[in-house]
Amino acid sequence: MHWLLLKIQSTEQQADQLSDALMDLGALSVSIEDAHADTLAEQAIFGEPGDPPPGIWQQNIVTAMLASDADVPALLAAVQAELQLDGLKYQLEQIEEQDWVRATQAQFDPIRVTDTLWIVPSWHQAPNADAINIVLDPGLAFGTGSHPTTHLCLSWLAQLPADLVGNANVLDYGCGSGILAIAAKKLGAATATGVDIDPQAVISSRDNATNNQVNAVFYDSADYLHGQFDIVVANILSSALMVLAPVIAQSCKNGGKVALSGILESQQTMLLTHYAEWFEMDAPIQQEGWVLLTGTKKCL
Questions:
Q1: pTM for this prediction
Q2: What is d(CA 48, CA 241) in angstroms, rounded to the nearest whole number?
Q3: Binding site per annotation, positions for S-adenosyl-L-methionine
Q4: Which of 63, 97, 131 is the endpoint of a domain?
Q5: How far from the centroid of its chain's Cα atoms is residue 105's Cα?
Q6: Which residues are annotated as a binding site?
Q7: Can you tell me the mean pLDDT for 242-250?
Q8: 74-93: pLDDT as tens digits
Q9: For position 194, which CATH number holds?
């Protein structure tokens, strides 16, 4: 069995209309991509919260997946008639059936954080059975350990002194998949708590904690009752870190540790200056253009 991929060149003004028309006329799925993706002309349109609403690329490829017996000329004629277009430029490709689950899984290997801490998808065996192995599959929530921001936080947690982590109450603010709270608990934390604004993240975190047989608790931010913790980690966008700074500071005990990630190198000075009101900040730790900021809560 196979499917057809119909790829139509489109302007910014036509893309959404083309997508809707193709779905109405029987396409199995439709996607819109930057026609210059993976080139120097690729156009960035997605910003952080608070930025202007994203638009769409100026030059697009609208891709429709069709059944193998689809009448492509008739479909194109119907689309052009409905939208009053003429001379659409397109390509037609054939895609063969395959084991999509196996093909997807093949893209994800175990991730080494340190020699003693690994992130292992459930379909893999742990490369080091004696290490702390967090079983975590790619899912809807952010945080599989592959992104530098998550990797920086995990590495920092793993390298904290054992006596500091061993008796700590840890808060993962913006928990995503729950990976940081789970890692903290596996590293010996007394308690691990996660909170997120996304209900799917809370569900994912709870499932991942169960799969890893750790006792961590996760809350929707609307239901979270604020407390104080020995260690607070927050791997979220820099704009959110700025807005939430008073809350994150209040959540950390005097003398407690904070770790902030999701920060680009160009944003580190702004964040360092802002958080210096509450924390004695350490030197930034950098990886692939991203920065981890850590510090110790002042006795205010």
A1: 0.67
A2: 12
A3: 150, 174, 196, 235
A4: 97
A5: 18
A6: 150, 174, 196, 235
A7: 95
A8: 999 999 999 998 888 999 98
A9: 3.40.50.150
